[in-house]
Amino acid sequence: MGAIEIFLVSLMIASCLLPSVSAATRHYKFEIKMQNVTRLCHTKSIVTVNGQFPGPRIVAREGDRLEIEVVNHVHNNISIHWHGIRQVRSGWADGPAYVTQCPIQTGQKYLYNFTIIGQRGTFWWHAHISWLRSTLYGPIIILPKKNTPYPFAKPYKEVPIIFGEWFNGDTEAIISQALQTGGGPNVSDAYTINGLPGPLYNCSAKDTFKLKVKPGKTYLLRLINAALNDELFFSIANHTLQIIDADGVYVKPFETNTLIITPGQTHNVLLKTKPHFPNATFYMTARPYVTGPGTFDNSTVAGILEYESKTKLHLKNLPLFKPLLPALNDTNFVTNFTSRLRSLASPQFPANVPQNVDKRLFFTVGLGTSPCDQNKTCQGPNGTKFSASINNVSFILPTTTALLQSHFFGQSKGVYKPDFPYSPLNWFNYTGNPPNNTLVHNDTKLMVLPFNTSVELVMQDTSILGLESHPLHLHGFNFFVVGQGFGNFDPNKDPSNFNLVDPIERNTVGVPSGGWVAIRFLADNPGVWFMHCHLEVHTSWGLKMAWLVQNGKLSNQKLPPPPMDLPKC
């Protein structure tokens, strides 16, 4: 049995994987239950999978089928999203509540059934309703097909590292209050690494993630940003990281001391340990990158990198080095780092960038306002509610059905309109002085695309209520980031600088603060697909919209009927 097979078996045991019917079908059972958890000297009952925080790992190979039974034992409605998994012709398993399914109600269950097609790398799963993903999340590790090597030297060991946030209070109460007042929700009390805040917070030294390594070895770190609200800088003191993968897509390797990872993104990095025992230990730390006008958790999470020694040493007596992270608002670092990301673009892993475009779209993204509900007091500007919008449309999710169901059964009337605007109705200087009217239009509009449409989408930040970066995640597709810049996008000049050879391919991208990003993708996956900001997605702040990709002509270009156990609203 090879090292990868041993790794796969050990991960399956650690992840409570049930015996498979066949080698290519992997069965998991997610029991949604309450569990008492203590962090920062605060004990509270949280929603978990199988009583674990963070939740269990899912491990499979490219080409495998996953069958994950989710049983809801809590009073909250539940849905689970498999972040980054394309769900080719399996949109019923994608997970966002009221988009592809009604949520799983108390006492009910649902079998998420899908195949991993053409993907390998690090992904993750999380709740996709309300703010339950603050505790309901875990890694998905997709290994290459059997006997297929990595396009880099085989690592000695693989370690998932998942960043999160800890709230001493009840996150459902926090989001409920924010929705009522239209203001920003309370910030977290700590960031976490694998569920642990680390020694830089009060009453937290015992809750520290420790990565124990051997000298002269190469470790593959699978980094996931599962934080609710913050892009994070990450670094390990006195060590260099080699970036080899972004969102499950191989990249041209490069070395860095520090990286930036937005909510929803993943990175695989290689850590080469020092050749000999260094007589020291090292902090691995993360803290936020901040661009917007809202409040944020200005704290630092730390884990510890410890070297194993053949002699018995008291590690507490060794010097402990701390990395120097960029300033909280260091946009130059973020720009330089993201500009280094390039697809591997090799014969085995090509970058199939759409060279011709069928549909060009221009979306403005940012914050506006909505009127306060009658007899309510709201915390937005001049007594309004903050409302995020795309092309001035603040997206309203249905509550009595799911968009995919209403589309599939031809029952869209009264649920959604198929006329999402291709560009903003009112043009203005997007990054200059904001317009006087900041009110948005609240509606449920979908962007309809014929099957196999090649799309170019430019997303432009706006200064209406302050410039800020927006990490946008697209369900159902990967896309190529062909260009980005600051200021207003110039359709006459900027496209000449697009990279159509080896742009980074991913599923989550940050729209730069005060700038724009251009992506291209092929709409070859029929269904209804959510696109949203991975910050505060289920508040009035959360940027969101949905695409409706129509069926193709061939049988393998059509969405199959829903499974019999699809939850009902």
From TrEMBL:
Residue ranges annotated for the Plastocyanin-like domain, each copy included: 32-146, 158-309, 423-552
Subcellular location, record wording: Secreted, Extracellular space, Apoplast
Residues in the signal sequence: 1-23
Free-text comment on the cofactor: Binds 4 Cu cations per monomer.
Enzyme class of the recorded protein, top EC level: oxidoreductase
Catalyzed chemical reaction(s): 4 hydroquinone + O2 = 4 benzosemiquinone + 2 H2O
EC number per UniProt: 1.10.3.2
Keywords attached to this entry: Apoplast, Copper, Glycoprotein, Lignin degradation, Metal-binding, Oxidoreductase, Repeat, Secreted, Signal
Domain of life where this protein originates: Eukaryota
Cofactor: Cu cation
Chief subcellular location: secreted
Family recorded in the similarity comment: Belongs to the multicopper oxidase family.
Job description of the protein: Lignin degradation and detoxification of lignin-derived products.
NCBIfam families noted in UniProt: laccase
Stored PANTHER family: LACCASE-17, MULTI-COPPER OXIDASE
Name of the protein in question: Laccase
